[in-house]
Every structure is written in structure tokens, then in C-alpha cells.
Amino acid sequence: MKTTNQQTDNKPKAVIYSRVSSLSDRQNYDSQTLELKEAKAMEFDIVGIFEERISGRKELSKRIEFNKMLEFIKENNIKNVLVWEVSRLSRKMQDSVNIIEDWNINGINTYIKNHNLNTLKPDGSIDVQTMLNIHMLQAFSEFELETTRSRVIRGLKASKLKGGANGSIQPYGFKNVDKKLVVEEEEKKIVQLIYKMYLEGNGCQKIAQHLNILEVPTRYAKTFGNKEIKTRTGRVRKGTSYSWTDNTIREIIKNPLYKGERIHKESIIYLSNLGIDPYITVENWEKANEAMKAKANNNGETEFINCMKNKLVCSCGNTMFQHARKNKRDWAYKCLSKRMKYKNLDTEPCNCKGANIDKVNNSVFYLLINLEKATLKNHHTRLKEEYSKNEFEAMKLIKSLEDLEPEKDRLNVMYQKGRISESDYDKEYNSIDSKIVNGKNRLNTISKRQGTLLYNIRYGSSRELGSDPKAFKTDVEHWVNQIKVSSPDIEPYRESYPNKQDFIIRLDVVLMDGSNHEIIFSSRTNTALINGKKVEVEKAINIMPL
Q1: Were both Cys, which of 75, 269, 273, 279 would link to 262 (CB 3.0–4.6 Å)?
Q2: 115-159 pLDDT, tens per residue?
Q3: SS3 of 88-142
Q4: Of 152, 529, 220, 207, which is closest to residue 363 (Cα–Cα)?
């Protein structure tokens, strides 16, 4: 945000909002801001300028400068917002209209420079003609955007049909030569080795380990080398730090490109038509993928249900995965770093020990059972009370909206008979319109909230916690926000766990209501400390249903 030094008391205050989509220097919001300042400097006291580089299709909650502007408008009672064009507010038609209508209701005028439009008249009433124009302009803008997107998609397809190399990083086994997809012979041999090893019965993790031992560089290692790159999570890493993982192997095996088929949307482009022979026969590709489907252990049909899915976080910051086997050997939730095994990282390797699956599930089950009669049941009562309160408010809103429609008819009759002036008619009509818009918005908000409440009432605390794995997984999703897993020193707990070969696991449990709970258990006993209380945790959850 920029603030201006000029302060003028006799001019209404205004803010400027400028936005471009590209993060590169190809697009610049300076011209938008400059033209708005030059056009309205004599009319307004411009007290704030908000500029950002972000896609207009991004959620409004993720647009930092836009939200700063909203706060600034509220805190400083700003009544004018200046934008270059409607699409600067949002590329989504409904979002732009909602923003402007909300400002209209609160007496905030929107000035749109490229069409010289104001959404409010000088007397503060809504300019109906401008709002109609805005709807038309945004509809055209969305049409233009969809047309551009269609052209891009058609262009990509045409490029692929001609053997074009799209994007900066090509699939493993290929390279970009003069914007054409070309075979990378050394990598082609690695791809063939991966399929050969997999068809011989080796798992993805074992193949990844084999390639790391051979020091075969990954695509990122070859492309970026020692250059630092920023990951999606914000972590900065060198290209050489990327090693082979089981997931990378899995994606290569699943990719139909290696059997000679390049997929674009629902179309298939055969590489043989471009002079590129398949790396793998269709028969072997299908065998490998059928074998992978048979081994799959991550869907709802599997006998191993992960009750803690997306809830466990290691003390090192990585997520944790369920390492479950039929023979129950190495039966634990483990830190993802154990699977990834990155090379050349500057950080210390994770020292968190695996947490026994049964002990985690059973101790969390006992924690929730212990809280159920007090915390959970009270929360369930509060949910039902809120649902009833919302239902009553919704009925009142519907009744008031029904009463407002005849008010419009009455107003029209009075105006036609000349009983009220045009300015009074506009003022009252806009007032009724604002009430209708506010009422409908509130009804929409209530409707969404009621859906959430109804789900939680029916499937959350309204029933007893179940020891059936699927039922317990639902309970965990409903009640548990996050569980941090760590392996602290056992010495402070030696009195409870005297075995010298023992180690302990600590679970810091955060529930959806924000409350924090501590669970301590050891590797060699069934005794757990749940919020400081010693409990014998017997088996309650069996993740291998009969």
C-alpha cells in the first residue's frame, strides 16, 4: 500500500486499486495508477494506493493488497474506490458484482476509468444504468477470457500434434530441442530399467533406492543443478538435492507416454506418427499398471484404513504416513522424510521414531471417549442450539423478503400517479432493493452454515464414538484438528516406564474446538499418560476388519 502526502479537507477521500495478473515484469500496474490519479486528482483526495500482481481468478481471501484496501476503507470511512476497469476487481463476474453491490449498500462509489462510470449517483443512490452496464461488461470480459483459454488449449494440442515440447521441464526420457520433443537416449535406458525391475517384482521404493545408489540424476537435478529453487511449500532447495523417490517411480510407470501415447484432454497423440518409437511395449505397460493397481493400498476398499489420515505431523514439520503390513512387522506411522530420503540437505535428518499404529489409534480413542460426556456432548448441544437459532432467523428473513415485494408495487403505483417525486422514488426504491440484497445474502450465508451444522450434528457427536475403523476415522476427521508426533527423552518419564530398552512417543493433540491435550505412551507397555493421568490402553480400534 502507498499513502499520499497531500491532504485536502474539501475533497472526498478515495483509494486506487490496481492489479495485473503476471508476476513477471511484462505487465505493469503503474500505468493504471497514473491514469487514475491524473483523471481524478482534481475531484478526489487520493489517500491510499493498493497495487498487486495476482490472477483475477484467485480467491479474494488470498489477495493481500485487496484485503488491506478493504480494511483501510473501513477504518478510514472511505466512500470512493477508483479502478481502471471492472476486471481489475475480479475476473469472476459474480465476485466483481458482489463486491460492487456490497460497496453500493454501504454507500461506497466505484469509479471505472475505461468506461467513465460511477456506480452511485451524486445523491448516493444506485445508478441502475451503470450496474446494468457492469453486468454486460463483466459478461463480455469472461467470454473474452474463455475464448483466450480455448485458443491456448487448441494451441497446446496443435503443438503436441506436431511433436512440440510444451513447458520448461520435459517428461523424464525426453528433452526439448528447437521446441520439439526429442528422445534423451541415456534417460530412455533408465525408463526401460524402471519397467524391467518393476515387472520382476521390485517395489517402487526399492527401484528408487537402486537408482540413488547408482547416482542417476533426477530430472530436477539435471535441469537446475546447484541452482536454488523454491518449492510449493516455500522451502528453498538446490536442484541436486532431489533424489529418486517411490512416488517419482510410480508416476513414470503410470505415464502412457512411454508406451507411445501422448494424452491431451480426451485425445490421444501417437508418438509413432512423430517418428518416436515407444520405450515400452503396450503389453508390458499394461502388465506394470495392472500390477500397481493390485498392490494399491490407498483407497477405501483396502483392509488397512488410515484413521489418522492428514492429521499426523512429525516434530520436524513433515507429514506422517501409515506403514501397515499384514504380518504387522514395522507397523507404524512414520515421518515422510523416512520415505523421501533426500540427498545433500542442509538440515539434520529426522530422529522421530515410528509411532505404533494401534497405540496411536487406541490412545486417541480413549482421549475422545474421556472427553465425550463433557466437552463433546456440550459442543453437540451448542451446534443444535445454533441450528435452531439460524432456522428461526431464516424464517423471519423469508417473511420480510415476501413483504418487501408488495412495497415495490406500491411504490410504482404512487410514482405513476404522481404522488412522489422521481428523486424520492429512486431513494425509496434503492432502499428496498438494498434490503432485498442484504436479506438474500444473509439467507445464503445461513444456508451454507446450516449444511455444515446438520452434517456435524448427524455424523459427529450425535452418536457414540465407534470402535469400527470407518466410524472412528469419521470421529477423528470431525474432532481432531492436528496431532504433532515427537520422540522426547524418556528420562523424565522413567518412573512410569522403567524398562531401559523402552522409548516413548508424545502426541500433542489439538481438537477442532482449539483445546490442547497431551498423550504419552511407550514402545513396550500398554500404559499411556493421557493429560497426565495413567491409563491402561487396551485394544479398541482394529484397523484390519474381518
Answers
A1: 269
A2: 888 999 888 888 888 887 777 766 666 666 666 666 655 655 555
A3: HCCCCHHHHHHHHHHHHHCCCEEEEHHHCEECECCCCCECHHHHHHHHHHHHHHH
A4: 529
